[in-house]
Specification:
alpha/beta, TIM Barrel, eight-stranded parallel β-sheet, 8 strands, 40% helix, globular, binds zinc ion
Amino acid sequence: MSVTRDIPARVKLFDTHCHLDLPELAVAQALHWQQAQQAGVAALVIPAVQQSAWQKLLTLRTQQAHWHIALGIHPWWASEHSLDAVAVLDKLVTAHSSTIAAVGEIGLDFALAEHSFAMQQQLFTAQLALAKQHNKPVILHHLKSQPQLLAELKRQQFSSGGILHAFSGSQQQAMAFVDLGFKLGIGGTITYERAEKTRKTVQKLPLESFVLETDAPAMPLAGFQGEINTPAQLALVFETFCQLRPEPREQIAEMLWQNSLNALRLSAA
Ligand SMILES: [Zn+2]
């Protein structure tokens, strides 16, 4: 008796947002990567969250052929930086242009305390200008800030694209970013039945609009609340994504892989 027919064909997945350098995952980094590969993850992106991570990520990139990196300052860490950090980032992107896939994780988070907003805005504006100048895509963090992000992207006439990380929202909100050349990063959110609006958006937009991500160690999937999220969980995000789409599973995997390469301007991963 053969059971092979019931085992889904192996696909190649790209985790476009995984904080493998953060302490929760770094303690067992090699193990997480091994388990991710066993689950079908063939490449990933590690977006920096603060300046102190940049050198470490540049070194990691030279050691791991399938780990891509983005350098930037995440809005949660904005108050610990000044604009001097953006000058340092500019030097690094100039010196290591081919090593750095994108500028990120940058953005605006208006769920944070209001006293952080001014610095968040300054750092986001400066980092977006830097990305534009170097023609690099960006990895965008958003929370209660989609209109403000869109306004700044338009004001700077930003055309290097990138990924709107952890997308949640309506078809109309999604299209505003897709029209500016962005892919929508879809993660564990879609595994929650209550995320109706986002799940509908995944059903309605062209497949070209999406990439997958885990945001590990954050954003645990439904059924895994309270646990540390890992890149191996991307396989479950993918299966949920496939349930929402009409295309065959292999075609979806192939398209998502291409979308990831396109968003990050990679010829191979
Ligand atoms: Zn992140």
